[in-house]
Amino acid sequence: MKNIKVMSIFGTRPEAIKMAPLIKELEITEGIESRVCVTAQHREMLDQVLELFQIKPDYDLDIMKEKQSLNGITTRVLNNLEKVFDKENPDIVLVHGDTTTTFAAALAAFYKKIKVGHVEAGLRTNNKYFPYPEEMNRKLTGSLADLHFAPTIRAKNNLLKEGIKEENIFITGNTVIDAMKYTIEDEYAFENEELNKIDYNKQVIMVTAHRRENWGEGIKNICKSLTEIIDKNQNVEMIYLVHPNPIVKKTTHEYLEGIERIHLLPPLNTKETHNLMKKCYMVMTDSGGIQEEAPHLGKPVLVLRDVTERIEAKEAGTVKLVGYSKENIIKEANILLNNENEYNKMSKAINPYGDGNASNRIVEIILDNLRK
Protein backbone atom coordinates (compact mmCIF):
# COMPACT_ATOMS: atom_id res chain seq x y z
CA MET A 1 0.00 0.00 0.00
CA LYS A 2 1.47 3.36 -1.00
CA ASN A 3 2.09 6.06 1.56
CA ILE A 4 -0.47 8.81 2.11
CA LYS A 5 1.07 12.16 1.20
CA VAL A 6 0.01 14.81 3.74
CA MET A 7 0.91 18.46 3.16
CA SER A 8 0.67 20.79 6.17
CA ILE A 9 0.32 24.47 5.25
CA PHE A 10 0.57 27.43 7.64
CA GLY A 11 1.91 30.96 7.67
CA THR A 12 1.78 32.60 11.10
CA ARG A 13 3.25 31.98 14.53
CA PRO A 14 0.00 30.81 16.19
CA GLU A 15 -0.64 28.30 13.39
CA ALA A 16 2.94 27.07 13.59
CA ILE A 17 2.74 26.46 17.35
CA LYS A 18 -0.40 24.38 16.97
CA MET A 19 0.69 22.53 13.84
CA ALA A 20 4.19 21.71 15.10
CA PRO A 21 3.27 18.74 17.35
CA LEU A 22 1.03 17.38 14.59
CA ILE A 23 3.87 17.61 12.07
CA LYS A 24 6.19 15.82 14.49
CA GLU A 25 3.61 13.04 14.78
CA LEU A 26 3.18 12.83 11.00
CA GLU A 27 6.96 12.54 10.54
CA ILE A 28 7.20 9.40 12.68
CA THR A 29 4.04 7.64 11.46
CA GLU A 30 4.45 4.66 9.19
CA GLY A 31 2.34 4.94 6.05
CA ILE A 32 2.51 8.74 5.86
CA GLU A 33 4.76 10.89 3.69
CA SER A 34 4.82 14.31 5.33
CA ARG A 35 5.35 17.57 3.46
CA VAL A 36 5.45 21.05 4.98
CA CYS A 37 4.73 24.31 3.18
CA VAL A 38 4.90 27.70 4.91
CA THR A 39 3.52 30.86 3.35
CA ALA A 40 5.40 33.12 5.80
CA GLN A 41 2.41 35.45 6.10
CA HIS A 42 4.38 36.46 9.20
CA ARG A 43 8.12 36.00 8.70
CA GLU A 44 10.25 36.46 11.80
CA MET A 45 7.69 35.21 14.32
CA LEU A 46 7.05 32.12 12.20
CA ASP A 47 10.76 31.34 11.89
CA GLN A 48 11.15 31.32 15.68
CA VAL A 49 8.66 28.46 15.97
CA LEU A 50 10.18 26.49 13.10
CA GLU A 51 13.57 26.70 14.80
CA LEU A 52 12.20 25.69 18.21
CA PHE A 53 10.47 22.56 16.88
CA GLN A 54 13.23 21.83 14.35
CA ILE A 55 10.85 21.86 11.39
CA LYS A 56 12.43 22.41 7.98
CA PRO A 57 9.77 23.32 5.40
CA ASP A 58 9.84 21.64 2.03
CA TYR A 59 8.39 24.84 0.53
CA ASP A 60 8.66 28.41 1.77
CA LEU A 61 6.51 30.82 -0.24
CA ASP A 62 7.92 33.87 1.61
CA ILE A 63 4.92 36.04 0.74
CA MET A 64 5.17 38.67 3.48
CA LYS A 65 5.29 42.28 2.25
CA GLU A 66 5.51 45.56 4.13
CA LYS A 67 2.02 46.95 4.86
CA GLN A 68 0.48 43.87 3.25
CA SER A 69 -3.25 43.80 2.57
CA LEU A 70 -5.65 40.90 3.02
CA ASN A 71 -6.21 40.87 -0.75
CA GLY A 72 -2.47 40.68 -1.36
CA ILE A 73 -1.96 37.81 1.11
CA THR A 74 -4.84 35.84 -0.39
CA THR A 75 -3.77 36.19 -4.01
CA ARG A 76 -0.08 35.47 -3.32
CA VAL A 77 -1.00 32.28 -1.43
CA LEU A 78 -3.35 31.13 -4.21
CA ASN A 79 -0.88 31.80 -7.01
CA ASN A 80 2.10 30.19 -5.27
CA LEU A 81 0.28 27.11 -4.01
CA GLU A 82 -0.95 26.20 -7.50
CA LYS A 83 2.65 25.45 -8.50
CA VAL A 84 3.35 23.52 -5.29
CA PHE A 85 0.24 21.36 -5.71
CA ASP A 86 1.06 20.65 -9.36
CA LYS A 87 4.47 19.36 -8.31
CA GLU A 88 3.53 17.41 -5.15
CA ASN A 89 -0.08 16.33 -5.76
CA PRO A 90 -0.76 15.59 -2.05
CA ASP A 91 -3.55 13.26 -0.95
CA ILE A 92 -4.68 15.73 1.70
CA VAL A 93 -3.80 19.27 2.75
CA LEU A 94 -3.93 20.22 6.44
CA VAL A 95 -4.68 23.81 7.43
CA HIS A 96 -5.20 25.30 10.85
CA GLY A 97 -7.66 27.67 12.43
CA ASP A 98 -8.60 31.02 10.96
CA THR A 99 -5.81 32.94 9.24
CA THR A 100 -5.88 34.27 5.69
CA THR A 101 -3.31 31.60 4.83
CA THR A 102 -5.76 28.98 6.13
CA PHE A 103 -8.63 30.10 3.93
CA ALA A 104 -6.52 30.72 0.82
CA ALA A 105 -4.75 27.35 1.14
CA ALA A 106 -8.07 25.53 1.53
CA LEU A 107 -9.42 27.33 -1.54
CA ALA A 108 -6.30 26.51 -3.57
CA ALA A 109 -6.62 22.83 -2.61
CA PHE A 110 -10.31 22.84 -3.53
CA TYR A 111 -9.50 24.22 -6.97
CA LYS A 112 -7.19 21.21 -7.47
CA LYS A 113 -9.76 18.76 -5.99
CA ILE A 114 -7.39 17.89 -3.15
CA LYS A 115 -8.93 16.86 0.17
CA VAL A 116 -8.68 19.40 3.01
CA GLY A 117 -8.35 18.62 6.71
CA HIS A 118 -9.19 21.55 9.00
CA VAL A 119 -7.40 21.46 12.36
CA GLU A 120 -9.16 23.42 15.15
CA ALA A 121 -12.42 23.48 13.19
CA GLY A 122 -15.79 24.75 14.33
CA LEU A 123 -14.99 27.74 16.54
CA ARG A 124 -17.55 30.52 16.02
CA THR A 125 -18.59 33.93 17.34
CA ASN A 126 -21.38 34.11 14.70
CA ASN A 127 -20.46 37.72 13.94
CA LYS A 128 -18.58 37.95 10.67
CA TYR A 129 -16.71 41.10 11.66
CA PHE A 130 -15.59 39.93 15.14
CA PRO A 131 -12.88 38.80 14.93
CA TYR A 132 -12.15 40.23 11.48
CA PRO A 133 -11.19 38.60 9.16
CA GLU A 134 -10.72 35.44 11.22
CA GLU A 135 -14.39 34.53 11.74
CA MET A 136 -15.08 34.28 8.02
CA ASN A 137 -11.70 32.69 7.26
CA ARG A 138 -12.64 29.89 9.63
CA LYS A 139 -16.22 29.56 8.39
CA LEU A 140 -15.26 29.54 4.70
CA THR A 141 -12.53 26.99 5.38
CA GLY A 142 -15.16 24.84 7.05
CA SER A 143 -17.24 24.94 3.87
CA LEU A 144 -14.26 23.72 1.84
CA ALA A 145 -12.92 21.06 4.23
CA ASP A 146 -13.47 17.31 3.97
CA LEU A 147 -12.30 16.33 7.46
CA HIS A 148 -13.05 18.60 10.43
CA PHE A 149 -10.88 18.20 13.54
CA ALA A 150 -12.95 19.92 16.24
CA PRO A 151 -11.26 20.59 19.59
CA THR A 152 -14.50 20.32 21.64
CA ILE A 153 -18.09 19.13 21.53
CA ARG A 154 -19.27 22.74 21.16
CA ALA A 155 -17.12 23.15 18.06
CA LYS A 156 -18.60 19.94 16.66
CA ASN A 157 -22.14 21.18 17.32
CA ASN A 158 -21.38 24.46 15.52
CA LEU A 159 -20.38 22.47 12.44
CA LEU A 160 -23.47 20.25 12.63
CA LYS A 161 -25.67 23.37 12.68
CA GLU A 162 -24.01 24.48 9.43
CA GLY A 163 -24.85 21.22 7.69
CA ILE A 164 -21.49 19.43 7.98
CA LYS A 165 -22.01 15.67 8.05
CA GLU A 166 -21.35 14.13 11.46
CA GLU A 167 -19.25 11.35 9.89
CA ASN A 168 -16.73 14.01 8.79
CA ILE A 169 -16.36 15.68 12.22
CA PHE A 170 -13.94 14.36 14.85
CA ILE A 171 -13.46 15.67 18.39
CA THR A 172 -9.71 15.59 19.03
CA GLY A 173 -8.85 18.17 21.68
CA ASN A 174 -6.58 21.09 20.83
CA THR A 175 -3.05 20.52 19.54
CA VAL A 176 -1.76 23.55 21.48
CA ILE A 177 -1.86 21.41 24.64
CA ASP A 178 0.33 18.86 22.80
CA ALA A 179 2.80 21.63 21.97
CA MET A 180 3.37 22.46 25.62
CA LYS A 181 4.91 19.03 26.19
CA TYR A 182 7.83 20.32 24.08
CA THR A 183 8.21 23.75 25.68
CA ILE A 184 7.59 23.78 29.44
CA GLU A 185 10.57 23.24 31.75
CA ASP A 186 10.51 23.15 35.56
CA GLU A 187 13.71 25.12 36.13
CA TYR A 188 13.59 27.44 33.15
CA ALA A 189 16.10 30.28 32.65
CA PHE A 190 14.98 32.90 30.13
CA GLU A 191 17.08 33.90 27.14
CA ASN A 192 15.80 37.44 27.71
CA GLU A 193 17.81 38.69 30.71
CA GLU A 194 15.20 41.27 31.70
CA LEU A 195 12.79 38.42 32.43
CA ASN A 196 15.34 36.70 34.69
CA LYS A 197 15.57 39.86 36.85
CA ILE A 198 11.83 39.97 37.65
CA ASP A 199 10.61 38.79 41.07
CA TYR A 200 7.95 36.18 40.26
CA ASN A 201 6.86 36.11 43.90
CA LYS A 202 5.10 39.37 43.01
CA GLN A 203 1.83 39.49 41.07
CA VAL A 204 3.31 39.42 37.58
CA ILE A 205 0.80 40.04 34.78
CA MET A 206 1.59 39.00 31.23
CA VAL A 207 -0.13 41.23 28.64
CA THR A 208 -0.61 40.93 24.87
CA ALA A 209 -2.96 42.86 22.57
CA HIS A 210 -2.84 42.97 18.79
CA ARG A 211 -6.21 42.22 17.13
CA ARG A 212 -7.59 44.53 14.45
CA GLU A 213 -10.80 44.99 16.43
CA ASN A 214 -8.69 46.66 19.17
CA TRP A 215 -6.71 49.01 16.91
CA GLY A 216 -7.27 52.66 17.78
CA GLU A 217 -9.40 53.37 20.86
CA GLY A 218 -9.23 49.78 22.06
CA ILE A 219 -5.44 49.74 22.46
CA LYS A 220 -5.51 53.22 24.00
CA ASN A 221 -8.06 52.13 26.62
CA ILE A 222 -6.08 48.98 27.40
CA CYS A 223 -2.91 51.04 27.94
CA LYS A 224 -4.71 53.57 30.17
CA SER A 225 -6.12 50.69 32.21
CA LEU A 226 -2.70 49.15 32.75
CA THR A 227 -1.24 52.40 34.08
CA GLU A 228 -4.04 52.70 36.65
CA ILE A 229 -3.77 49.03 37.71
CA ILE A 230 -0.02 49.50 38.28
CA ASP A 231 -0.59 52.75 40.18
CA LYS A 232 -3.14 51.19 42.58
CA ASN A 233 -1.36 47.83 43.13
CA GLN A 234 2.20 48.18 44.36
CA ASN A 235 2.88 44.42 44.29
CA VAL A 236 2.17 44.18 40.54
CA GLU A 237 4.69 43.97 37.70
CA MET A 238 3.53 43.87 34.07
CA ILE A 239 5.28 42.28 31.12
CA TYR A 240 3.69 43.59 27.93
CA LEU A 241 4.74 41.65 24.83
CA VAL A 242 4.31 44.29 22.14
CA HIS A 243 3.20 43.05 18.72
CA PRO A 244 5.36 44.43 15.87
CA ASN A 245 2.37 45.83 13.96
CA PRO A 246 3.19 49.58 13.58
CA ILE A 247 -0.24 50.74 14.81
CA VAL A 248 -0.05 48.62 17.96
CA LYS A 249 3.61 49.35 18.63
CA LYS A 250 3.30 53.14 18.28
CA THR A 251 0.30 53.43 20.62
CA THR A 252 1.70 51.06 23.23
CA HIS A 253 5.04 52.87 23.50
CA GLU A 254 3.35 56.28 23.46
CA TYR A 255 1.25 55.44 26.53
CA LEU A 256 3.42 52.99 28.50
CA GLU A 257 7.11 53.61 27.80
CA GLY A 258 9.04 54.64 30.89
CA ILE A 259 6.37 53.68 33.43
CA GLU A 260 7.86 51.95 36.44
CA ARG A 261 7.06 48.22 36.76
CA ILE A 262 5.75 47.97 33.17
CA HIS A 263 8.23 46.11 30.97
CA LEU A 264 7.68 46.57 27.23
CA LEU A 265 9.27 43.66 25.37
CA PRO A 266 9.09 42.42 21.79
CA PRO A 267 7.22 39.13 21.25
CA LEU A 268 9.05 36.18 22.77
CA ASN A 269 9.64 32.87 21.10
CA THR A 270 7.16 30.14 21.95
CA LYS A 271 9.27 28.47 24.63
CA GLU A 272 9.92 31.76 26.41
CA THR A 273 6.22 32.69 26.21
CA HIS A 274 4.98 29.37 27.60
CA ASN A 275 7.45 29.45 30.48
CA LEU A 276 6.60 33.08 31.24
CA MET A 277 2.95 32.05 31.42
CA LYS A 278 3.90 29.34 33.88
CA LYS A 279 5.71 31.80 36.15
CA CYS A 280 3.24 34.70 35.98
CA TYR A 281 0.24 35.36 38.25
CA MET A 282 -2.35 36.02 35.53
CA VAL A 283 -2.71 36.96 31.85
CA MET A 284 -4.49 39.80 30.04
CA THR A 285 -4.78 39.22 26.30
CA ASP A 286 -6.83 39.37 23.11
CA SER A 287 -5.05 36.28 21.73
CA GLY A 288 -7.06 33.17 20.95
CA GLY A 289 -4.28 30.68 21.56
CA ILE A 290 -3.37 32.09 24.97
CA GLN A 291 -6.97 31.53 26.10
CA GLU A 292 -6.26 27.81 25.64
CA GLU A 293 -2.63 27.73 26.83
CA ALA A 294 -2.70 29.73 30.06
CA PRO A 295 -5.54 27.74 31.71
CA HIS A 296 -3.55 24.55 31.10
CA LEU A 297 -0.98 26.10 33.45
CA GLY A 298 -3.59 27.25 35.97
CA LYS A 299 -3.39 30.95 35.06
CA PRO A 300 -6.58 33.07 34.95
CA VAL A 301 -7.09 34.98 31.70
CA LEU A 302 -8.85 38.32 31.24
CA VAL A 303 -9.82 38.52 27.57
CA LEU A 304 -9.50 42.04 26.14
CA ARG A 305 -12.31 41.54 23.64
CA ASP A 306 -16.09 41.81 23.52
CA VAL A 307 -16.48 38.34 21.96
CA THR A 308 -14.55 35.08 21.93
CA GLU A 309 -14.67 31.91 19.87
CA ARG A 310 -13.37 30.07 22.94
CA ILE A 311 -16.83 29.82 24.53
CA GLU A 312 -15.85 26.59 26.32
CA ALA A 313 -13.15 28.44 28.27
CA LYS A 314 -15.60 31.13 29.29
CA GLU A 315 -18.16 28.52 30.41
CA ALA A 316 -15.50 26.53 32.28
CA GLY A 317 -14.48 29.69 34.12
CA THR A 318 -10.84 29.67 32.99
CA VAL A 319 -11.23 32.98 31.10
CA LYS A 320 -13.39 36.07 31.57
CA LEU A 321 -14.41 38.51 28.82
CA VAL A 322 -13.68 42.08 29.91
CA GLY A 323 -13.81 43.95 26.57
CA TYR A 324 -11.72 47.09 26.17
CA SER A 325 -13.65 49.43 28.44
CA LYS A 326 -11.14 51.04 30.80
CA GLU A 327 -13.47 50.81 33.80
CA ASN A 328 -14.25 47.13 33.27
CA ILE A 329 -10.64 46.07 32.70
CA ILE A 330 -9.56 47.81 35.91
CA LYS A 331 -12.47 46.35 37.91
CA GLU A 332 -11.90 42.75 36.82
CA ALA A 333 -8.11 42.95 37.21
CA ASN A 334 -8.47 44.30 40.74
CA ILE A 335 -10.81 41.44 41.67
CA LEU A 336 -8.20 38.85 40.67
CA LEU A 337 -5.39 40.79 42.31
CA ASN A 338 -7.16 41.29 45.62
CA ASN A 339 -9.70 38.47 46.04
CA GLU A 340 -8.06 35.10 46.64
CA ASN A 341 -11.34 33.15 46.32
CA GLU A 342 -12.12 34.62 42.90
CA TYR A 343 -8.55 33.98 41.77
CA ASN A 344 -8.71 30.34 42.88
CA LYS A 345 -12.03 29.80 41.10
CA MET A 346 -10.38 30.64 37.79
CA SER A 347 -6.93 29.17 38.38
CA LYS A 348 -8.31 25.79 39.50
CA ALA A 349 -11.05 25.46 36.86
CA ILE A 350 -10.59 22.56 34.44
CA ASN A 351 -9.24 23.50 31.02
CA PRO A 352 -11.70 22.16 28.39
CA TYR A 353 -9.16 21.80 25.58
CA GLY A 354 -7.93 18.27 25.99
CA ASP A 355 -5.26 15.94 27.31
CA GLY A 356 -2.29 16.56 25.03
CA ASN A 357 -3.00 13.70 22.61
CA ALA A 358 -4.84 15.58 19.86
CA SER A 359 -2.07 15.14 17.28
CA ASN A 360 -2.05 11.38 17.64
CA ARG A 361 -5.84 11.26 17.21
CA ILE A 362 -5.71 13.41 14.07
CA VAL A 363 -3.04 11.21 12.45
CA GLU A 364 -5.04 8.05 13.18
CA ILE A 365 -8.17 9.62 11.66
CA ILE A 366 -6.27 10.60 8.50
CA LEU A 367 -4.91 7.08 8.11
CA ASP A 368 -8.31 5.51 8.65
CA ASN A 369 -10.20 7.81 6.28
CA LEU A 370 -7.72 7.95 3.41
CA ARG A 371 -7.08 4.22 3.42
CA LYS A 372 -10.80 3.71 2.93
Automatic annotation (TrEMBL):
Residues in coiled coil: none
Residue span, UDP-N-acetylglucosamine 2-epimerase domain: 25-366
The keyword Transcription appears for this protein: no
Short name of any one Pfam family annotated for the protein: Epimerase_2
Residue intervals passing through the bilayer: none
InterPro entries: UDP_GlcNAc_Epimerase_2_dom (IPR003331), WecB-like (IPR029767)
GO MF terms, alphabetically ordered: UDP-N-acetylglucosamine 2-epimerase activity
EC number: 5.1.3.14
SUPFAM superfamilies tied to this protein: UDP-Glycosyltransferase/glycogen phosphorylase
Keywords linked to the UniProt accession: Isomerase
PANTHER family in UniProt: UDP-N-ACETYLGLUCOSAMINE 2-EPIMERASE
Family under the similarity heading: Belongs to the UDP-N-acetylglucosamine 2-epimerase family.
Name of the featured protein: UDP-N-acetylglucosamine 2-epimerase (non-hydrolyzing)
Gene giving rise to this polypeptide: wecB
